[in-house]
Amino acid sequence: MSAKRVLLKLSGESLCDDSSSISEGSLLRTVNEIKSAVSCNEVQLAIVVGGGNIWRGTGKFIERITADNMGMLATVVNSLALGDVLTKMGVKSSVFSAGGVSGFVEDFDKKKVIDYIECGNVIIFAGGTGKPFCTTDTSAALRAIEIEADVLLKATQVDGVYNADPKKDKNAVKYDSLTFKEALDKHLKIMDAEVFSLCMHTNTSIIVFDFYKDGNLRKILKGEKIGTIVEV
Q: Which structural domain, as residue segments, surrounds residue 118?
C-alpha cells in the first residue's frame, strides 16, 4: 500500500479494558501505536473512533433516535480523550465533530480539516454523521471520501476478513484480498454493506487488520501487506 492520506477507524474498545469505559492502559497503548506509526511514516492521518465502550446498544426502553444521539455523544467523549493524550505525547491533534457540541470541539469544516491535516495534525472526527441510523463505520467511510483519503483502515481484533467467524469456526478461511462486489455478494459482516458500497463507488480501498498486534499500524503505513484488502 502506498498512501499519503489515511483514515483509521477505531472501535471504542481500543480505549478500554473489561473494567472501565476508558482505561489508562488501553488509551496509552492506542496513542503509542498511533504515535509510532505517524513518526515513522510521512502520512496524513485522520481517525474516527466509535463509542461502544461507553454506550452499548439501544435498550428496550430508549427510543432508537435518542439512543443513536447518545452513541454520537459517546464518540465525542472518546475523541476528546484520544486527542488530549495524543497532544500530551507530542502528537499534534485536532478534534472535529459533525455538529451540535460547539464549545467542546470544532464543527466539521472540510477546508479547515484539510489545512490542519496538511500541516501535520492528526485529525479526529467525532459525532458520527450527526444523524441517527448510521454507524461509525459509515461515518468513517463518509469522512474518508470527504477528505479524499487513499485508504480506509478498519482496526479490529482479528487479522483480516474470514468466510466465517474464526473465533467460532476453526475451519474459517482468511481472504488476503477481496473486491467490493465479492464482499457484498458474500454478505461479509466485518463492515456495513453501505460502507462497501460507498467505497466501491469512490474507489477508496479498505484494509481490515488486527490493531491489537503491536506495530501492525506502523507496518501497514510502511507498505507491508497485513490483513485483508478490499478494493475495486
A: 5-231
Neighbours of 2 (CB within 10 A): 7
3-state SS assignment for residue 226:
coil
Which CATH number do you get for residue 223?
A: 3.40.1160.10
Q: Sheet holding 44-49: strands in order across? A: 106-107, 93-97, 122-126, 44-49, 5-10, 151-156, 205-210, 228-231, 177-179
| d(C-alpha 167, C-alpha 13), whole Å | 18
C-beta separation of 192 from 180 below 8 A: no
Q: pLDDT tens digit string along 30-75?
A: 999 999 999 887 899 999 999 999 987 666 789 989 999 999 999 9
Kindly report, residue by residue over 183-213, the tens digit of the pLDDT.
999 988 889 899 999 999 999 999 999 999 9
What beta strand segments (E) does 21-130 contain? 44-49, 93-97, 106-107, 122-126
User: Domain count of the chain?
Assistant: 1
Phi, psi of 212 (to 5 degrees): -90, 5
